[in-house]
Specification:
The protein is α/β, with parallel strands linked by helices. It is built from nine helices and 21 strands. The strands form three sheets. A five-stranded mixed beta barrel has the order 1-2-3-13-12.
């Protein structure tokens, strides 16, 4: 649910420098909803991830597009070339052609005085050479000389900054970096750097249901196999990165769900799981003793319950995916103990029994009963690195999802 202006009052989190996603831009009232990683209030232990941000006539909007060349830099503009390697810094200083791996094309009203400029960090008026391969090169004025410069490298990037307008927020998808201050219980942005995001509806098949998978690195292992198995059946999406323990899930759930109230961004089925991080325990090799879990079981159950309440708001079919097995103990530092997954799965089932409408995708039992994992069971790594194992788990997850749909 979107926070109203009244609900926003009393929230004193400093949003200056914050980054997040923009939802529900309201041009008339000059505000939008910022969805960012949750920050917990140490006094109340309550977290917030959604905030209302306001702007004024004086707010500066800058669009930032990161690309692998100077496409669109049609006129001479100031460009900053940071972190030159020694050999290229020497060439630039001598007025000889040099190579860079990163560059920032400044907006006309950018304050270049904030940039580091020295032997290894150059700033000058750049003119694109339209004949250069892939628009990677041009000349830059350094100390009165036009010096040839070329972008090169597999990860070479150019950040192109241009002046934007508030009305741009109403079209497309954006992330934002904020500068500003809180005025009378409102955060008012003085500068907003906005970054275009891909619209998932561009790649989705609108005639198919949308599925979201929330999980740790195990779901990263089987992601491609499950997605392939559901091709033509569902638009399969997975959260970015590792979902980690349940307390991280609780902190990030709103961010992962996105603006599901928008047409085409709804979720038809959400499969979620936490556990393999929660069950980690420190091991003392001298005493042979295991310490407490990374997340105590009661805290684990409490976080799952709160995650479920957030997921229910989407109206999606919910499916709990059981935590996959810990084949053998790996007693080194903060590690995992054999079969501890069974304890945490039972704790999760206790929570799920309070919500009988939630489906159980019992991947744990599938892996335990399948002889295809006999070799994997001899080791201590909980992950599935073999393509055959990844395919089996992914296909089983896809089967559960098909049934849920």
């Amino acid at each position: 649910m979107i926070k109203t202006e009244g609900q926003e009052a009393g929230n004193n989190e400093d949003l200056n420098g914050s980054q997040g996603k923009i939802f529900h831009a309201d041009i008339t009232n000059r505000r939008f909803e910022l969805l960012k990683e949750t920050v917990f209030d140490p006094k109340t232990n309550e977290g917030r991830s959604r905030h209302t941000v306001y702007w004024t006539d004086q707010t500066r909007f800058v669009k930032v597009v990161t690309q692998n060349g100077f496409a669109g830099v049609d006129k001479p503009v100031r460009v900053h070339f940071p972190n030159l390697k020694v050999e290229n810094a020497d060439l630039a200083a001598a007025g000889q052609p040099f190579v860079v791996t990163e560059a920032t094309a400044l907006a006309p009203d950018d304050d270049a005085g904030q940039l580091k400029v020295d032997r290894n960090n150059k700033l000058g008026l750049f003119t694109l050479d339209p004949a250069s391969p892939k628009l990677w090169g041009g000349t830059v004025e350094l100390e009165g000389q036009a010096v040839a410069v070329r972008l090169r490298g597999p990860n070479a990037q150019v950040a192109v900054r241009t002046i934007a307008r508030a009305s741009d927020l109403t079209s497309g998808f954006w992330s934002v970096k904020l500068s500003g201050q809180r005025i009378d219980d409102r955060f008012v942005a003085s500068t907003m750097e906005i970054y275009p995001l891909e619209d998932p509806r561009v790649i989705d098949n609108p005639s198919l249901p949308r599925v979201l998978v929330i999980g740790d690195s195990i779901s990263m292992n089987y992601h491609e196999a499950a997605k392939a198995a559901l091709k033509g059946i569902a638009n399969y999406h997975r959260i970015e990165g590792n979902g980690g323990p349940a307390d991280r899930g609780l902190a990030c759930v709103e961010l992962w769900l996105g603006d599901y109230t928008q047409e085409g961004l709804h979720w038809d089925l959400i499969q979620f799981n936490h556990g393999l991080h929660d069950l980690k325990q420190p091991y003392d090799s001298e005493t042979g003793q295991w310490g407490g879990h990374q997340v105590p079981i009661e805290d684990y159950k409490r976080s799952l319950e709160q995650i479920i309440q957030a997921l229910k708001k989407t109206g999606a079919v919910l499916a709990w995916c059981t935590t996959t097995p810990v084949p053998n103990s790996s007693p080194s530092g903060f590690a995992r103990r054999k079969d501890e997954d069974l304890i945490f799965n039972e704790a999760a089932r206790e929570v799920m029994r309070r919500h009988p409408e939630i489906r159980i995708h019992d991947v744990n039992t599938f892996i335990r009963q399948s002889s295809a994992f006999d070799n994997w069971r001899q080791g201590t790594d909980v992950h599935f690195w073999g393509q055959a194992e990844q395919a089996l788990v992914g296909q089983e997850v896809a089967r559960f999802i098909r049934e849920g749909l």
